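Appendix C: a fully annotated inverse folding record. The material below is reproduced so that readers can follow the format used throughout the book. The structure is listed first as tokens, followed by the designed sequence.
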């Protein structure tokens, strides 16, 4: 069986960049993506803070543009879910859909997936009014009232997106201060006809049998409840890293994100991490791309030093 210099797990901005750098360094690379190249960028309507695109760029367009950079390069690209990574002597054996792939280094760019609220019947009503992706599902709620839960950049951006489709968007955040960027909040605060911002409030109950027909929220200050007549509930309360397949000796932080040093080296020699799966403050496309390049360079040096 052939041995790859590096296997990259995940085809988002971090994985694409790591692949680009390693192939250009002459390494034999395989990149595994679970679904479609682009990662979470595909679920973002418009990206306004990626340098080089002063007017912003659609998420799908940036994903396509990044992925196209690999088109003429010689690397193995495959769709498949990694289920485990086991170290054997100097190499790593990865299980991918019942097959084994061998690599001298592994770069984890597996990103993160959305967190759920944990409300009763949330799972049951997912796809029937509860959603975690405005771009995917927003159009089902054209001209209707919807709620967005969360106070981070995703919640603010998705509220802006939904405000162009829905009759009214209620943005519900558990605190008074928002975590997301002021530029988005200012915009939302000026849209009083279509956006109502409900601070210090938490969702407590979803209504409706087959589909969402309302949401009860409660004030964390007064305990007062209020029923919002919404047909859609969009949940953006943060992300959980995709690390289930990792060996136990890869050190994680208390939230489960992979701890690296500044060169993207994890606690296990030969395993690197880049992008949203990594423990860090600033999760952006631009930092994912930077992580990817740094991880590739570190992996290249590791291969050179080991002379393998
Ligand atoms: P996030 O920044 O972690 O924000 C999650 C939000 O959900 C927080 O406001 C949090 O409240 C709230 N929350 C968490 N659990 C909750 C619960 N059980 N009930 C109610 N509210 C809850 O997540 P994110 O917005 O998905 O962003 C993830 C990362 O991607 C961040 O680093 C973000 O900056 C980045 N991002 C950047 C952009 C951009 O720059 N354009 C766009 C999207 C995402 P508290 O504030 O009270 O903790």
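Designed amino acids, in order:
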């Amino acid at each position: 069986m052939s041995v790859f210099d590096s296997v990259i797990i995940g085809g988002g901005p971090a994985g694409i960049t790591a692949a680009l750098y390693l192939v250009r360094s002459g390494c034999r690379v395989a990149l595994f993506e679970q679904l479609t190249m682009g990662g979470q960028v595909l679920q973002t309507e418009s990206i306004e803070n990626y340098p080089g695109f002063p007017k912003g760029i659609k998420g799908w367009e940036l994903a396509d543009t990044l992925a196209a950079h690999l088109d003429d390069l010689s690397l193995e690209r495959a769709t498949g879910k990694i289920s485990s990574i086991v170290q054997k002597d100097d190499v790593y054996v990865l299980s991918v859909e019942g097959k084994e792939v061998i690599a001298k280094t592994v770069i984890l760019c597996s990103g993160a997936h959305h967190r759920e609220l944990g409300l009763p019947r949330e799972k049951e009503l997912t796809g029937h009014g509860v959603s975690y992706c405005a771009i995917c599902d927003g159009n089902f709620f054209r001209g209707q009232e919807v709620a967005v839960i969360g106070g981070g950049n995703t919640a603010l951006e998705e509220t802006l997106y939904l405000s162009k489709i829905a009759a009214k968007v209620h943005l519900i955040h558990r605190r008074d201060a928002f975590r997301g960027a002021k530029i988005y909040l200012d915009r939302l605060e000026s849209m009083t006809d279509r956006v109502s911002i409900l601070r210090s409030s938490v969702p407590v109950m979803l209504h409706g049998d087959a589909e969402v027909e309302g949401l009860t929220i409660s004030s964390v200050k007064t305990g007062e409840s209020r029923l919002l007549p919404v047909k859609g509930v969009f949940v953006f309360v943060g992300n959980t890293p995709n690390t289930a397949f990792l060996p136990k000796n890869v050190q994680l932080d208390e939230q489960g994100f992979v701890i690296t040093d500044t060169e993207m080296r994890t606690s296990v020699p030969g395993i690197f991490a880049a992008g949203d799966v990594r423990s860090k403050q600033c999760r952006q496309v631009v930092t994912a791309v930077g992580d990817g390049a740094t991880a590739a360079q570190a992996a290249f040096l590791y291969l050179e030093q080991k002379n393998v």
